[in-house]
Amino acid sequence: MQNRSKKVLVIGSSAKEYALVQKLQTYGCEVIVAPGNIRIKDIAECVDIREDSTKELLEYVLENAADLTIASSDLAIKSDIATLFQSNEQMIFAPSADSAEITISRSSAKKFLYRLRIPTPKFGVFDKIQPAIDYLKKAQMPQVIRSDEAFKGQDRLVCTTFSAAKTFVEDLFASDTKKIVSEDYVYGHEFTFYTVTDGYHAIPLVSVANYKFMENGDGGVLTSGVGAYAPDYKISNDIEDYLMKNVVNKVLQALESKGTPYLGILGIDCVLKDDGQVVVLDFKSFLQDHDAKVVLNLIDENLPALFEACSVGSFADDYESVKISENSSVSAVVSTRNANRIIEGLNFVDSDFVPFGISKNDYMEFLTVKGKNFVLTNTASTLSRARKHLYDDLSCIKFDGIKYRTDICEQVEKF
């Protein structure tokens, strides 16, 4: 008699969940997604339950005998789904709302970094408009201004003048933003250092180079991410060891001492300055939409088993390290300002395709939406080869108004 496949519930509705579903299916898992989206429905069963409807999600898990739940959605995490599931003896891979506050609230993250004396850019936190404007009058430019909660949308801007900063702050508060964070812009190489943890023991996954500006050469609008590559050859083992000792372990120990141990994937957003110093910008509660496939393609462990070990408390005994492939991955986000344009050429693409919110017409052709449309990721034996294959595939895709950065991983030598 054959063992039944493991049933896994994934909670979320964005590109990272699509990538996660694909990875879980390679282990023979039966994957259900709540709530999912129109494109995730193409590859997995979706149930119409909101990410923050934690009691309804628990009822679904109990009624359908799900073996493992993975909450990668910030909204679900903020609703404290982890605590509810754990109190009902249901296996879940996700941090509690209290432990994940530093990944959801930028102001909490900045204050937390300051208390732990972890290097971070000078910052100010404001819940009223006038103190924010007074601060900006004396602040060093450029300033990076963001709303407090990281999942509220494209509510961030790098302001090079006081006038631009003042206007953006006024716009944020006018749009019902309750709190903002302004910090000095730090020049250097941006990357995310990902780890997996049960709250007490942490293991590095991979460092990912990030591209967050829309235009080549880090120009244009600051976004949550428009491209990535891994492993990040600019981040040495010494830098990763420094981050484990002086950031990850300090963070986990501080959270444990508060009685709120952090279980899940913890990403550390950093900048490597020209002088070799690393400063920490903020924290991520899971992989990000633009780099999820990059990271997942390099993980050689059985992912459900890894997540279960964290959930049941056997992680430290079962894992001394996480197997990471010797391959390399490069991704690019494809965007446009034009909706309802037919996307041509996807059938010629060999790179991994992860969609955002694109739709299909009656002829089953993909149609664009305004903004981010999809992520292409190529994985190969070297970064240079992955980059070449990625851009070869991107050149096959045609539609009016197509937009993507052409300089991702441009400086890489042959590895």
Summarize the structure.
With 415 residues, this protein is α+β, with helices and mostly antiparallel strands.
Broad CATH class of the largest domain: Alpha Beta
Unreliable segments (pLDDT under 50, ≥5 consecutive)? none
- Which sheet architecture does the biggest sheet show? 8 strands, antiparallel
The overall pLDDT, averaged over residues, is 95
| Helical residue percent band | 25-40%
Sheet with most strands: strand arrangement: 14-13-10-11-12-15-19-16
CATH topology of the largest domain: D-amino Acid Aminotransferase, Chain A, domain 1
The count of helical stretches stands at 13
Overall tally of domains: 4
Shape from CA axes? globular
Separation of the first and last Cα atoms: 47 Å
What CATH architecture of the largest domain would you give? 2-Layer Sandwich
| Percent strand | 25-35%
Based on secondary structure, the structural category is alpha+beta
Q: Please identify which CATH superfamily of the largest domain we are dealing with.
A: ATP-grasp fold, B domain
Estimated radius of gyration:
21 Å
- Count of DSSP E strands? 19
Structure description:
- It is built from 13 helices and 19 strands.
- The mean pLDDT is 95.
- It folds into four domains: 7-93, Rossmann fold (3-Layer(aba) Sandwich); 122-184, Dna Ligase, domain 1, CATH 3.30.1490.20; 187-318, ATP-grasp fold, B domain (D-amino Acid Aminotransferase, Chain A, domain 1, 2-Layer Sandwich), CATH 3.30.470; 328-394, Phosphoribosylglycinamide synthetase, C-terminal domain (Glycinamide Ribonucleotide Synthetase, Chain A, domain 4), CATH 3.90.600.
- The strands form four sheets. Strands 14-13-10-11-12-15-19-16 form an eight-stranded antiparallel β-sheet, with helices on both faces. A five-stranded parallel β-sheet has the order 3-2-1-4-5, with helices on both faces.
- The protein is 30% helix and 28% strand.
